[in-house]
Design goal:
The protein is of the alpha+beta class and 467 residues long. It has two domains: 2-192 and 325-466, no CATH class; 195-226 and 240-322, no CATH class. The chain is globular and about 90 Å long. The longest helix is centred in the C-terminal third of the chain and has 34 residues, at 366-399. The strands form three sheets. Strands 1, 2, 3, 4, 5, 7, 8, 11, 12, 13 and 14 form an eleven-stranded mixed sheet that branches. A two-stranded parallel sheet has the order 6-15. The chain has a two-stranded antiparallel sheet with strand order 9-10. It has 14 helices and 15 strands.
């Protein structure tokens, strides 16, 4: 029961993002359903998990479409809540650490806005090369969790598939910068991302706000040494670039490399070789950036880049080594939380064909565009509910680990010391405590009363017996 009280105190921080209290209560109900459900079948699984009356299915679904949910404000408030709730956010050089990446989710609906043919590259042979689905970008923040690190999700947006104006020239890189503006992290931060984001637009967008990029660059990339003026300066614009340097050549001189214990997360008793060089990179608008050529005894070699010349190369390697944490959070969101398991179809939408590309909405009527916006809003609210659910599970695991284990009510073959409970363990603990919370707190807690009044009378007795 104490777990649910902590859960309620945390989610109440999001109340200002809703113009009506009832809309917030339905959103909290959706998040609670995410926490305790055992199946990932959309809104129906939430109704079953909380034993709600079947007649409330439409009301629960309609609450996700409501204009009372201020989506961007909700994402910003959730970011501030994360910074407030987690006691040990990761900091390097006094800066917070954010991680960004993209994810593609398969959707088979022919009447779902934003669905298009997507190409995905993966080392896994279980993923098809082409899928129909939604293409999204996500931002997470790294926090300390005992002896581990969590990537707490902050916001996700669908960034492909819908073209609202034929004058819109924004790329995925522009939209990632916009997403970072939405989450509104006021403190300076490092943004860690893969090689796709090693581009001028990302660097400029970050540096304009006094933030820095840590990423990997492709092996065929080139940079330039700063030009050293020799003799009297000639007329005209001063020369900027000196000798051309193939970045791959930094790996070809092992005698110029330094040795150090591997700072990569989870590695022990391994020694890596690295070489540091500050060069001008045209993709960054001629800015001087730091390149780190790393040779790993097991993983091979890679070229890392950081726009902060004061950051130690070992810290650059460590930060990029933590990038996989957002991919792990994607795995939990897909397989445990069901963050992307929405199935909202738009009845009046024109059916999509197999292999369909972008949907050009500037050619459609205003009524049709508004209907698409309403449906896309519902997708994003559903996703944000999953994000809040996952973040609250991580919060309870970090701050109340003993309480989680005492409420777990099940068995694990191996419990690793120094590692906080997983989302699966916390969700099981919340599921075990839910009947007691609803029955004993219905008169004192507003949320417990809200859910209890909407439960099916035939199943309410089951909750009382479970308590």
């Amino acid at each position: 029961m104490a777990l649910w009280m902590a859960w309620w105190d945390a989610i109440w921080l999001l109340r200002p993002a809703f113009s009506r209290l009832r809309s917030f209560m339905w959103f909290a109900t959706v998040v609670a359903g995410f926490n305790v459900r055992t199946e990932l079948l959309g809104v129906t699984s939430i109704v079953r998990a909380l034993k709600l009356r079947p007649a409330l299915y439409n009301k629960l679904r309609d609450s996700l479409h409501s204009n009372a949910v201020q989506l961007d404000q909700l994402s910003a408030l959730w970011t501030q809540a994360v910074l407030h709730l987690f006691p040990d956010p990761l900091r390097v050089n006094g800066r917070r650490v954010l991680v960004g990446d993209g994810i593609k989710v398969a959707k088979s609906g022919k009447k779902m806005p934003g669905v298009k043919l997507l190409h995905q590259q993966s080392d896994s042979n279980t993923k098809p090369e082409y899928i129909m689905g939604h293409s999204m970008q996500a931002v997470s923040i790294l926090v300390g969790a005992a002896q581990s690190v969590f990537a707490v999700p902050l916001a996700v947006r669908i960034h492909e598939g819908l073209v609202w104006s034929n004058r819109d020239r924004r790329t995925l890189l522009d939209k990632m910068i916009s997403l970072l503006d939405i989450v509104s992290v006021n403190d300076p931060f490092y943004f860690v991302a893969d090689a796709y984001y090693a581009a001028r637009k990302i660097v400029k967008g970050l540096r304009d706000q006094d933030n820095h990029l840590v990423t990997r660059v492709k092996s065929n990339a080139v940079a330039y040494a700063p030009y050293l003026q020799q003799g009297p300066r000639k007329r005209g614009r001063p020369r900027l670039y000196g000798d051309r340097v193939k970045l791959k050549s930094l790996l070809a001189e092992p005698q110029s490399s330094q040795s150090a214990p591997s700072p990569v997360y989870g590695e022990h008793a391994l020694t890596i070789q690295y070489r540091v060089c500050d060069l001008l990179w045209p993709a960054c608008g001629g800015r001087l950036v730091r390149f780190v050529a790393v040779t790993h005894p097991c993983r091979g070699s890679c070229l890392l880049m950081c726009t902060d010349l004061s950051l130690d190369p070992i810290q650059i390697i460590r930060l990029y080594g933590l990038r996989f944490k957002i991919e792990h959070s994607f795995k939990q969101a897909v397989h445990r939380i069901g963050t992307f398991a929405y199935h909202f179809w738009m009845q009046d939408m024109k059916p999509l064909g197999r292999g369909n590309g972008n949907q050009y909405l500037h050619r459609e009527s205003l009524e049709y565009r508004n209907a698409v916006k309403r449906k896309t809003h519902a997708y994003h609210v559903f996703i944000q509910a999953g994000i809040v659910c996952q973040g609250l599970l991580q919060y309870l695991a970090v701050v109340f680990p003993s309480l989680v284990w005492s409420s777990f009510g099940s068995w694990l073959r191996t419990i690793r010391p120094g590692i906080p409970p997983s989302e699966l363990v916390v969700a099981n603990a919340l599921r075990q405590c839910l009947p007691e919370f609803l029955v004993n707190s219905a008169k004192t807690n507003f949320f417990a009363k809200f859910v209890t009044e909407r439960q099916d009378p035939d199943t309410f007795e089951m909750f009382r017996l479970a308590t």
